[in-house]
Amino acid sequence: MGGMQNCVYVLDTDILAQQRTFSEWYGKMTPRRQQKTDAFRFDRDKRLCLGAGILLTVALGRQREPECLFEAHGKPYLAGSGINFNLSHSGRFAACAVSDKAVGVDIQQHRHFEKNLIEYVFSSQEAQRIDECETAEQRDELCTKLWTVKESIIKYLGTGMSLAPKKIRLDFDGELKAQCSSHELGKLHFTSYDIPGYELTVCSEYEHFSDDVLCISKL
Asked: Does the N terminus or the C terminus of the chain have fewer Cβ atoms within 10 A?
């Protein structure tokens, strides 16, 4: 994949509700993905898990899901490939970002954040910005967006939840920037994409990751 461009892929996993489509793609997944899919109780969660594997397979132009290795906190990677990727899913959508540099992606369906969760996740400055929202809908959208920014950083770093979201502080003056006492985040940029009812953020070293989301509507 020489000269690979940054790409963001999204799959509406409702198309996997057709058993034939689900079974066909399930057979193309690694044993690990199959076991992980089987472990979910609800069909919606099974489709999300399978959908993430499908996106990786499609993004890399493979016929079957590639075997991945995993870093200490579970971030997957392809050994010796020079290809960086990250996966996320929420609601009915799965997302995959692919790049020639480290990348983190997070997609979240808009949700309500209770006060105790806001206090747990966000700094006082971030909470103040949230309080300035005029409507409950705007408040929930901003909470969800800021959450995806923090999650995309955690996934970029590959720390897992060993890095608490509240330790990441977001600076709203001008371009959105992030700070953390335990990690250097100054080189990171955040690109957001518009998906109705969802927030999707990519964290990378690129000032602008890519123009569009590639929506996979047929399999």
From this structure: N
Alpha carbons within 13 angstroms on the beta-carbon side of residue 102 total 13
| Average pLDDT rounded to a whole number, residues 32-41 | 97
Domain ranges of the chain: 7-216
**How far is Cα 71 from Cα 50, in angstroms, rounded to an integer?**
21
Q: What is the band of 4 on the pLDDT scale with cuts at 50, 70, 90?
A: low
**Contact criterion met (CB below 8 Å) for 6 and 209:** yes
Domain 7-216 = CATH 3.90.470.20: yes
Chain mean pLDDT for the chain: 93
pLDDT at 2 over 80: no
